[in-house]
Design brief:
Chain A is an alpha+beta fold and 393 residues long. Chain A contains eleven helices and 20 strands. Chain A folds into two domains: 4-235, Rossmann fold, CATH 3.40.50; 240-366, Nucleic acid-binding proteins (OB fold (Dihydrolipoamide Acetyltransferase, E2P)). By secondary structure, chain B is mostly helical. The two termini of chain B are 37 Å apart. The chains are: A alpha+beta (393), B mainly alpha (384). The interface between A and B is medium-sized, with 23 and 17 residues. The complex binds adenosine-5'-diphosphate and magnesium ion.
Chain lengths: 393, 384
């Protein structure tokens, strides 16, 4: 149980590869933080710096108010679950889980070790495997042992680096649910790394979205979903991903309109008021709207636009329609199956023309140059840095 | 259950000879093909009769040809399969491949003959020494191999002719054992620590150090002999004090033999080290509690090679012992036994007995540990 504070943390690998740029983050006691981002964005590097497995090139990391930069992993009182489990092949499951306890000084009595290991095994449902070697376990069981090994010890911070990514989809869902339960039981500070936005959304109290070594946004799942700071976050969070189209934001009196594909849709509710408060002028924008916020319209009108259906994916409870607008841009639409009657469902085939509109309250506006949201409160300095620092690949 | 059934099925088949089975099979096959052709001809006639146009008839005939061919191939395949299942298992599964089989027999025989000749050539000296060591009648060279009089006299003489303190065989043997054991232990520790460090820790000059040692190792060790002798002499570690001197020299450069074990450590996942460190281990604990237990083959390989180096060393040991018999190792001592015309005549058979005794511990070690030795050499390949 501890807070973790990263101040201007930077990681430069050999050959001047900057893996993490000026990372600033305050993690509160008992918070569940998720680092999420595409592969290679520096999530593992950051986690490993917290664990003490990588040197910190610049900046400081504090655990519980103590700067740990120069402390060995063993002196940081952390537990970690590795992506490839990293179980000790020569030890039984019991001894694997007892390993951290046997290293404690002063020595922990055997009875206590036994109690803790068996308790953890019970929680994780691996009691019957305690005498086996890791080789004789399935992937899911190994993962449980790895988690068990991390949880027997009292630790200040519990770190996990993509613990589920080596499991198949079904097991992954199951283990995700178990981690949520586990979290209630262990009740400590968690830092969890994943590249899967679903995992991030379902597990995290707060999510840190990273790209190319920069933090793109930090916020609760709801915040980053409803108010993405920039285009990257908007597209990364949510599946299927947000539709982004070129458009204009038009200011007419006190009202705002957008005009994708020749339509004219009013910006409604809070968004309009926020734009007005910020006194945003008429300008070119990238307009974002989520697939689930699109409505099918019966007839053409000024407030909707025409698209052609390309692919219809029947997902069960909903349809994912891949459509092409008149200017060739591709969009995805999510329609609950229940909204369509049988006849309409059958008509959803290649080439069908549809009229679409979307909710005015839930659209997003991005500056086409900086890719930052027009409504973003915090300047996203990382983004502008990114433009200067990182050479095009 | 199923297995039993199979046995019952195959047993009668095994009682017939392969020839019989093939004959039966072919007969059945031909009969079926004949029947098919007959039927087909009749059918074709009917179909041809049903049309008048020449074009159509031609088409039907062509079609029929193809169909018939396919059907016959099917039957042939069916019988080939049947044959494959019913023939007794083993090398002579298919008679038609008999030619290949006899070729293989000839090939194997040639290889075995060559191997036997080579084995004989290779074993001959060893057998000779073994036989000589049991020969009681003395003199240096004799015109026969099999001793006329057998006995353990040579072995007994080895230990009794000269006392331990005067530098007899017992002393040499003891010296060598001490040297080898110490070198094996110290060298193994140094080599394993060195290679683990090179495998895991990234420090400045690591690449340079590795290359430097590799290149240094390419120079023959004898180049350093004179200077090493001087150094040891100045330290007073020659002649009767040769043993610690020799240990020092053998052990000194052992860090350079890091490659094989480093290669092995490189195959152990780094995340094991990291997991252990997070679990609360320091570097040394990681090495002893996690890495070493996983490295049994390479530990044994290193021990064995380190033990064998000094066990058979002659050149450097002669220099350091000079003529002092209490400072000799077994190779030098034995050579000393037969260093002059007279002593050859007197001691030759004893010399052979000594050679046999030298070979024994190494042979036993290898027999016990050869499994690990091979695993150690092939390292990562086995680990996977
Ligand atoms: N040991 C290393 N040496 C050099 N570059 C590295 C090293 N480890 C990682 N990197 C680089 O740092 C970046 C971030 O890596 P990582 O933190 O593993 O990404 P993630 O876990 O988000 O997929 C990547 O571009 C990677 O190539
Ligand atoms: Mg990673």
């Amino acid at each position: 149980m501890a807070s973790v504070k990263l101040t201007d943390v930077k990681k430069i690998y050999q050959g001047n590869v900057v893996a993490v740029h000026d990372f600033n983050l305050d993690i509160k006691d008992k918070e569940f933080i998720v680092f999420v981002g595409p592969s290679g964005c520096g999530k593992s590097t950051t986690l490993r710096m917290i664990a003490g497995l990588e040197e910190i090139s610049e900046g400081t990391i504090e655990i519980d108010g103590v700067v740990v930069n120069d402390l060995q992993p063993k002196d940081r009182y952390i537990s970690m679950v590795f992506q490839n489990y990293a179980l000790y092949p020569h030890l039984t499951v019991f001894e694997n889980m007892a390993f951290p306890l046997r290293l404690l000084r002063p020595r922990m009595p055997n009875a206590e070790i036994y109690k803790r290991v068996t308790q953890a095994a019970e929680v994780l449902g691996i009691t019957q495997y305690l005498t086996r070697k890791p080789k004789a376990l399935s992937g899911g069981q190994r993962q449980r042992v790895a988690i068990g090994r991390a949880m027997v010890k009292d630790c200040k911070v519990f770190l996990m680096d993509e613990p589920l990514s080596n499991l198949d989809a079904k097991l992954r869902n199951q283990m995700r649910a178990e981690i949520i339960l586990l979290r209630k039981k262990i009740d400590t500070t968690f830092i969890y790394v994943t590249h899967d936005q679903t995992e991030a959304m379902t597990l995290g109290d707060r999510i840190v979205i990273m790209k190319d070594g920069f933090i793109m946004q930090v916020g609760s799942p709801t915040e980053v979903f409803d108010h993405p700071n920039n285009l990257f976050v908007a597209e990364f969070i949510g599946a299927p991903k947000m539709n982004i189209v070129k458009s204009q934001l038009l200011k007419e009196g006190d009202k705002y309109y957008v005009n994708p594909f020749g339509s004219k849709i009013e910006v409604g509710g809070a968004k309009g008021k926020q734009l007005l408060a910020k006194n945003v002028e008429t300008q070119d924008i990238l307009l974002g709207f989520r697939p689930e916020h699109v409505r099918l319209e019966q007839n053409p009108s000024a407030s909707n636009f025409k698209v052609t259906l390309e692919v219809n994916e029947m997902m069960g409870s909903e349809l994912h329609l891949h459509v092409v607008a008149e200017d060739g841009s591709k969009l995805i639409v999510r329609i609950p199956t229940i909204q369509l009657n049988d006849k309409e469902r059958e008509e959803m085939v290649y080439g069908k023309e549809l009229y679409l509109s979307f909710e005015g309250k839930v659209m997003h506006f991005f500056n086409p140059e900086t890719e930052i949201s027009l409504l973003s409160n915090q300047e996203s300095p990382q983004k502008s840095d990114l433009k200067q620092d990182v050479p095009e690949e | 259950m199923e297995k039993e059934k199979k046995v019952v099925e195959t047993n009668p088949a095994q009682e017939k000879t392969a020839d019989q089975i093939i004959k039966e099979n072919t007969a059945l096959r031909d009969a079926e093909i004949k029947e098919l052709k007959r039927k087909n001809e009749a059918e074709l006639k009917q179909r041809l009769a049903s049309t008048d146009s020449k074009e159509e008839r031609k088409r039907i005939k062509e079609q029929n040809k193809v169909d018939l061919y396919n059907q016959i191939s099917e039957i042939k395949n069916k019988y080939n399969d049947l044959l494959a299942h019913s023939l007794p298992s083993g090398a002579n599964k298919d008679k038609r491949h008999m030619g290949m089989k006899s070729k293989r027999i000839i090939g194997n025989t040639t290889i075995y003959i060559i191997l036997i000749i080579m084995t004989f050539i290779w074993l001959f000296p060893f057998v000779c020494i073994l036989l000589q060591s049991f020969r009681v009648e003395s003199t240096h060279m004799v015109g026969y191999i099999i001793p006329k009089q057998w006995g353990f006299d040579n072995y007994i003489n080895l230990f009794t002719k000269k006392a331990f303190n005067d530098g007899g065989f017992g002393r040499w043997y003891f010296n060598t054992l001490i040297i080898s054991i110490f070198v094996a232990l110290i060298q193994t520790i140094i080599v394993l620590c060195m290679s683990y460090t090179l495998s895991r820790i990234r420090f400045k000059g690591r690449k340079f150090l590795m290359n430097f040692m590799l290149i240094l190792g390419m120079f023959p060790g004898m180049l350093t002999m004179i200077i090493l002798y001087r150094v040891l002499k100045d330290m007073g570690l020659t002649e009767s004090h040769a043993i610690p001197g020799l240990i020092l020299v053998y052990v000194a450069s052992s860090g350079m033999g890091y490659y094989v074990s480093k290669g092995f450590f490189d195959t152990l996942p780094k995340s094991l080290d990291e997991a252990a460190r997070v679990d609360g281990a320091n570097r040394a604990q990681v090495f002893f509690k996690v890495i070493l237990p996983l490295s049994k083959p390479i530990v044994i390989y290193t021990l064995l090679t380190a033990f064998m180096g000094p066990w058979g060393d002659y050149i450097f040991a002669t220099y350091v012992a000079h003529h002092e018999e209490t400072g000799m190792n077994v190779a030098v001592g034995l050579q000393n036994l037969i260093s002059s015309e007279q002593s050859i005549n007197a001691n030759y058979t004893m010399f052979c007995a000594g050679g046999v005794l030298v070979a024994i511990p190494i042979t036993i070690l290898f027999m016990i540990l050869q499994k690990y030795y091979v695993e150690g050499v092939t390292g990562g390949a086995v680990k996977g």
